[in-house]
Design brief:
Layout: E1 4-8, H1 13-24, E2 29-33, H2 46-51, H3 65-72, E3 74-77, E4 80-86, E5 91-96, E6 102-106, E7 109-112, E8 116-118, E9 131-133, H4 137-150, E10 154-158, H5 162-173, E11 177-181, H6 193-205, E12 209-211, E13 218-221, E14 227-231, E15 236-238, E16 242-244, E17 248-250, H7 253-257, E18 268-269, E19 282-284, E20 289-292, E21 299-301, H8 305-319, E22 332-337, E23 340-346, H9 349-354, E24 359-367, E25 378-386, E26 392-399, H10 403-415, H11 420-424, H12 440-449
Parallel strand pairs: 1-2, 1-7, 2-3, 7-19, 9-16, 10-11, 10-16, 11-12, 18-20
Antiparallel strand pairs: 4-5, 5-6, 8-17, 13-14, 14-15, 20-21, 22-23, 23-26, 24-25, 25-26
The structure holds flavin-adenine dinucleotide.
Length: 450
């Protein structure tokens, strides 16, 4: 009988695991179960599909089930939810969502890639048809249809994290008036406060009504069973639609029920080889897991497509008999908000202090290219480094031009344990159209070294 590898979950980690497993072990039968309607698509591109910058929704899909079978010989079953795992029998129980019937399947190796779910507010009205969570392609289609057909004039976005901000940018490109309700003084709590102020300014410049230090207490529901008002402590916002973007939590319930260990943040605990802790023959990858943070060396939760795909490939390779390791994540994230590029890599100062590092913070403002060019703009750098040995722990880079790609240099530096001295000595490209003679990256290293 053929060896059988089963994958649960079909967005980023799942398909990466399945295709890698098949490549490493072409004789194995690889089967993927996904409870939703789609597999293998770009979640990160959803805001640009909503804004209209990506027009063709088919471009978001990397593999349909048919193509995955034809090109990779992986069998994917959509609308099939795995309801339980029995590790002692190497068996799973699955419900076909279309007809409601359940059946069992067996595995030699199982890969759990069940991802994450949007956090909910727990407020009456959040299931109304004009309240949207941005997590899946089905969510994106529903939102796009609502905007195209019902032409809302305004929207309230709850949460000013990366997704809330990307949606603010997307919806204002659709000419909606936007209010953002956020729990703290400035957006993106992972960034340093001086940089978060720059983001607040960018929202103001672009006529976004940013409401700080507020939480939503109630929804007002209208005659069409739509949310028509969002109630804050001292204010009511009338609205045509709501986006809830208050974060995600790992889908680890299924794993936990079968005896797999989960960490402090609710993610499945895995070894460096992606073996789920507490059971044999089961691997896990992606948003449903906690992984080793490369700086703190401790297990932490991160929800990023890069980490999901990478860990998916590792789980796939090892499930197929390989022996590869994941060294840990840096957490490299970036986005564009109107004209502003925003990037964060590594630890924030708060996280570094919580991890008992003695930190040094260095802020530098530099130019994106030589000042003679009229389109040379400011770039704001912040480095968080370890005072005791100079090692880089984290960085923020913000600016109108070239900020995100510059932050990648710091991601690399963190990955390889470089110090601010190393950064000061980097040999980087100088070309007047791309950087000043001393790029801000090097200037920041020099400043931090002092
Ligand atoms: C709007 C948006 C923008 C983003 N932008 C970026 C970005 O720019 N860069 C970046 O790195 N990351 C970004 N991310 C994060 C990234 O999309 C996620 O980290 C990534 O999708 C995680 O992939 P995953 O496969 O682990 O989990 P998920 O994408 O959550 O997929 C898991 C799948 O498993 C299925 N599933 C769960 N339980 C079961 C079950 N019991 N049976 C069958 N199927 C099941 C779910 O239906 C789901 O389809 C963004 C996320 C969002 C929402």
């Amino acid at each position: 009988m053929k060896r059988k590898i089963i994958v649960i979950g079909g967005v980023a980690a799942g398909p990466s695991a399945a295709t890698k497993a098949k490549r490493v072990s072409p004789d194995a039968e690889v089967v993927l179960y996904e409870q939703g309607e789609h597999i293998s698509y770009g979640v990160c591109e959803i805001p640009f599909f909503i804004s209209g910058e990506i027009q063709d929704s088919e471009k978001l899909v990397v593999y349909t089930s048919e193509r995955l079978k034809k090109e990779k010989d992986v069998t994917a079953h959509i609308l099939h939810r795995v309801e339980s795992i029995l590790p002692s029998k190497r068996e799973i129980s699955i419900r076909n969502i279309k007809d409601g019937k359940t059946f069992t399947d067996w595995y030699d190796k199982l890969i759990i890639a069940t991802g994450s779910s949007s956090k909910h507010l727990g407020i009456h009205g959040e299931k109304c048809r004009n309240v949207f969570y941005i997590k899946s392609l089905s969510n994106a289609y529903a939102l796009k249809k609502y905007i195209d057909e019902e032409k809302p004039r305004n929207a309230v976005i709850i949460g000013a994290g990366f997704i809330g901000l990307e949606m603010a940018d997307a919806l204002s490109k659709r000419e909606l008036e936007i209010s953002i309700v956020h729990k703290s003084e400035h957006p993106l709590s992972i960034l340093e406060v001086q940089n978060r102020k720059i983001i607040s300014e960018e929202l103001k410049t672009n006529a976004i009504n940013f409401i700080p230090n507020s939480t939503v207490e109630w929804f007002g529901i209208g005659s069409k069973q739509n949310v028509v008002a969002v109630g804050l402590k001292n204010q009511t916002l009338e609205t045509d639609m709501v986006i809830v973007a208050i974060g995600v939590s790992p889908n680890s319930h299924l794993a936990q029920q079968s005896g797999i260990q989960v960490g402090n943040q609710g993610g499945i605990l895995v070894s460096d080889r992606m073996n789920a802790l507490g059971v044999n023959n089961i691997f896990a990858a992606g948003d449903c897991c906690e992984f080793k943070n490369i700086v703190t060396k401790k297990s932490a939760y991160v929800s990023l497509a890069t980490t999901a795909s990478k860990t998916g490939r590792i789980a796939g390779e090892n499930a197929a008999g390989g022996n590869v390791q994941f060294k840990g994540f840096v957490r490299a994230m970036g986005m564009q908000l109107f004209d502003l590029e925003i990037a964060h890599v590594g630890l924030s100062s708060k996280e570094a202090q919580e991890a008992h590092f003695q930190i040094e913070i260095t802020d530098v403002k530099a130019k994106s290219k030589i000042g003679m060019f009229p389109n040379s703009t400011d770039i704001y750098f912040t480095l968080i480094s370890d005072k005791t040995n100079g090692k880089l722990l984290g960085a923020n880079v913000l600016g109108k031009n070239g900020a995100v790609q510059r932050a990648n240099v710091f991601a690399l530096a963190i990955r390889h344990g470089l110090t601010v001295q190393d950064i000061a000595e980097l040999d980087l490209i100088y070309a007047p159209k791309f950087s000043p003679l001393w790029d801000g990256i090097i200037q920041t290293g020099i400043q931090a070294r002092k």
